[in-house]
Amino acid sequence: MRIVVELASQSLVLEDNGQEIVRYAVSTAKNGPGEREGSGCTPRGEHRIRARIGAGAACGTVFRSRRPTGEIWTPELAARHPDRDWILSRILWLCGCEPGRNRGRDRCGSVDTMRRYIYIHGTPDDQPMGVPLSHGCIRMRNHDVIALFDRVAVGTPVRIVAPDDRPDAEAPSNGDVRQPERAQVEIEITDWVSAEARVMPLREAVFVIEQQVPPELERDAFDPVCRHAIARTPDGEVVATGRLLPDGHIGRMAVARAWRGRGIGGRVLQALIADARARGLTEVVLNAQLSAEAFYRRHGFAPEGGVFMDAGIEHRAMRKRLERFTR
């Protein structure tokens, strides 16, 4: 078993041998990803479950310092204690596995997930899921965290994937490996009538000019029947795009050169996956450039078959099975 927490989509996936078993909506840090002590951020990278706390406790049991208080959360209790950060039902206490990143210290101070008391835990029923609002922990619905708790053991791997986990096509140029800043863009899903004039200049810049794809191959007859994701800045500049065919095929993922390295590609991909799920599709597929295969693996795609050439570039087919969010 392995847990994957996707910060971009605000979801937690339980996998078995690389296959998605169940997906839950979660709420991670309002301050975004980060490892620093006192940052209020959700740490990234490889972790494991250090401790399971609360086995057999009633749904809604209140914990403080990992001990039950004897209270059961109710709206009336919450009204009497408006400043509490509620930890309910079950606790999965996480420990970092990457020294200097999420375990121990780096040159600037503590980055230790365990000593930051980062948990996967239940939260009040009136708190929204799918929106980052926590102080660093991973919040879940009470019945969801109880179900997850019963399926995992101490030592279960937990990977926390941030939006800046990106394909090579998005990587900064000239070997720059800086930490990306949070890109202030909005993602919309629209049809081809609305998208064509906005996305084609970007697609031509990335595919035709940068990657030397013949123009007659880049534009095809599928565009009019696709759903198109558009990432745009507050002033309307289109900085990334991708498309979803009716059969669940994702393609034409592109990010403007000046906006690479900020996690936008991951956000576009997750928006297309969410749209596919909302439309009742049970899986999504894509043909990944080999340089981007690791990126798609981190987003839950599994490779299928061998390498093939498309528009003069090596590709591999990949597939991701979809589960509806539990309620």
Write a structural description:
Strand 14 and strand 15 (238-244) form a beta hairpin. The longest helix has 19 residues, at 192-210. The protein is an alpha+beta fold. It folds into 2 domains: 2-161, L,D-transpeptidase catalytic domain-like, CATH 2.40.440.10; 168-321, Gcn5-related N-acetyltransferase (GNAT) (Aminopeptidase, 3-Layer(aba) Sandwich). Helices cover 18% and strands 35% of the residues. Strands 1, 2, 3, 4, 5, 6, 7, 10, 11 and 12 form a 10-stranded mixed β-sheet that branches. A 7-stranded mixed β-sheet has the order 13-14-15-16-17-19-18, sandwiched between helices. The chain has a two-stranded antiparallel ribbon with strand order 8-9. It has helices spanning 75-80, 142-149, 192-210, 215-218, 264-278, 293-298, and strands at residues 2-6, 11-16, 19-25, 45-53, 61-64, 67-72, 87-96, 105-106, 109-110, 119-122, 138-140, 157-161, 186-190, 227-232, 238-244, 249-255, 283-289, 302-310, 313-321. It starts with a strand and ends in a 6-residue tail after the last strand.
